[in-house]
Amino acid sequence: MKQALLMLGCWLALWSTQTMAETETTPSYEDLLIELTEANLNTTQPILEQIEATEHPDVLVLFKTLLDGNLNFRKADQALISIIDINGTDQYTEFSTGTAIDPLGRRDVTKIRVNNNLRNYLTSAIGRLQLTSPNPELRKAAVLSLLDNLQPSTAAELTRLRTEEDNRSVLASIDLALAMYSAESGDSTAAKITAIDKLSESLEPSARNLLFSLERDAEDPAVQDAATEALKKIDGKVTFYGYVDQLFFGLSLGSVLLLAAIGLAITFGVMGVINMAHGEMLMLGAYTTYVVQLLMPGYINYSIWVAIPAAFIVAGLFGILIERCVIRFLHGRPLETLLATFGISLILQQLVRTVFSPLNRRVAAPDWMSGSLEINPVLSLTYNRLTILIFALIVFVALLLIMKKTALGLYVRAVSQNRDMAKAMGIKTDRVDALTFGLGSGIAGIGGVALSQLTNVGPNLGQAYIIDSFMVVVFGGVGNLLGTLVAAFTLGIANKFLEPITGTVLASILVLVFIILFIQKRPKGLFPQRGRASE
Amino acid sequence: MTLWQTFLSRRNSLGSPVLPFVTILLGLTALAAVGNLWFPPESALHVSTYTITLLGKYLSFAMLALAVDIVWGYCGILSLGHGAFFALGGYAMGMYLMRQIGSRGVYGDPVLPDFMVFLDWDVLPWYWLGMDQFWFAMLMVLLVPGLLAFVFGWLAFHSRVTGVYLSIITQALTYALMLAFFRNEMGFGGNNGLTDFKDLLGFSLQADTTRVALLISTALILAGLFTLTHWVLKTRFGKVIEAIRDGEPRVRFLGYRTDRYKVALFVYSAMIAGIAGALYVPQVGIINPGEFAPLNSIEIVVWVAVGGRGTLYGAVIGALLVNYAKTRFTALMPDGWLFMLGALFVLVTLLLPKGLAGLYGQLSTSWKRDQTDQHPPNKEATS
Q1: Complex ipTM tops 0.85
Q2: Is A250 inside a domain boundary?
Q3: Among A169, A61, A191, A48, which residue's Cα sits nearest to residue A118?
Q4: Do A113 and A153 share a structural domain?
């Protein structure tokens, strides 16, 4: 009996040590979460590694919450709570069950803190976890996030995943990661050099950094040379895409200039009226956008579609008003027109300052215009600039059609070429003048809508563009819409290509000087009108 | 004929408005000077130093208006960039005044102005050399605006850029210069410009006597330039200039090199603007790139338009009136001034195309309708 008791005792002891040993080697997911709440910054990483090893389905969410700094625990029972800031109010959720709970006091919860080392670890762990995500975008992002921290285990995992992967873009990124791995820790020099050759095709910053370190630190001179070669190739590509980027910015500036100048091309170019208040028409359009957004606060994404016609009407009506009240009395006296319209521009600016405020106003961009189109790691085109570029071209084509295909366009051209003859043919020149001026001003208003998406809206918005607009119209050739288009893009691109060399201010000065010299040589612009219209 | 009648009858003879203009200008200046220096501050006849400075400022603006009237009123060249010549003259004077500060600056460097010490510059840029000599600085006041006007005018008039195009290019010119002067690397003090001046030719700029002397010099120079300009415009050269205003192609077909006449006049006008700038700077105590702003240049045009162009004295009266109104208005309601200025532009061009001087002319012709020596109405500037 005594023996039996002893045996039982031994067995019990063995059993308990056995279970204890088991808990030592593989503690359960739940236990680990408790441990996590007790750990300090130095002991957190081993716990996290164990958590990752459990392959529990919640690990990914847990790591993401932790990385974002939203993971807390309740002091009372050490239960994990995620606190997420949604529109300024904190949303409390019990982590294990995923149910929302009432907010707790600041003293009842403790945040689980992470430092940079842990963040690095979490980022790559999330990457490893996402490698098997069903979403190809996520898989690709996961592979790319691993690039800076390639371990033999990761490489093996990637090699295995490569056989299962069928998405081409994900495959390419896996290949890049494997090439980077073998370039750094490949078996032979030949393997390293082949991998480096592969890397020279890539524009990823991580690949470039690796090549830099190889060029500097690799033991084998052949590897160093290969890295130098690859870097040269990459640099060439980066320079090329840099030019493409500058070209895009130039086109973008050109489209802004086009939108600013195209209304002027009608009033100044076709009608021959010097309207110094043209810049203020842009400003009115921009302020209309601002007001429309104020009037429909919940519909930022749609307000722009209301703002475009509204700006056209507001600026157009102001234009007609100016034409009827001032400009028509000054026919054939361009210098007086210039002075009078300058006075109007001062009045409009002050009006806006009084009604709104002298401070700049910000117009929110609709969602579909934010973000950018990523073509490759070194080249991305922002959607708002892209949209405005396309928008400018649409406006231009529309205006061209109005001038060439409609009755109004015909009348406008007739009146501008020979007022008396047009009158004799029964064209109501007064009405045509007013409508044309309204059209030119309205188009400027639409330009203002586009400008409000790029810069802040303020009383001086128009002034900044008036000289440039005149330059564009004069450079392109007065009365020639196509010339205005070419001139706007030429000046925009020239400006952006000069900027990195000379700086912003000097670039605009150089462009101004260039135009002044150009007008000396060809006073009628790039595309002078020929025949009677030029008289 | 009494002396008074002789005085009045000169209106229709050569050099007509010169004598009354100079008399009134110098008389008023003398009164102001006496009022400031001889009467104690508590006397009713005392003129405050603030008023003296303000008058000096107005007179330099009047000189600037004179410069614009010369090219716009007599040759039909509407320059929207005369502020650039004014500012260049001002900067030349400012550089001289900067060098006079010597080691009294904040950093106490005997040679370098404060802003250069601040920018860690070791040596004076070459274009600052010689600016410590008064005669050299005054030469630059004439030469720099003159040279710019020559190059610009030669390019523009030689290729027959006229009318509105010219106006816009002149505006672009002053705009480009403004951008350039805003840069610290230009070596002109960037944003802040040149300021903290101490003395001019050894006289403290804060002293009442210096202020009065500056006012008197401004008045004397204005009177001198007015007389000179009047004489220049009465000569054969002046007649050709007026003919160019009224019909440039005809003058050209008659065999005159119209572009050279225009360049000469433009340079002359730019130099006057430069002198005005040089007189303006010591009186207000600062010159900064804001003077290049296109709006400033266009304001000058409105002074001339209000006073009436093509008369010289009209430009002076316009400058004095508009600036007086500006001073009063900005003190009373700061926001209202731009409304006023804008309305002035519109109303003057619509209702008073010849300005106040023209209004007087119109009224007097209607009074003297039956007189035989009726003055032919001034032709509009065509462009």
Answers
A1: no
A2: yes
A3: A48
A4: no
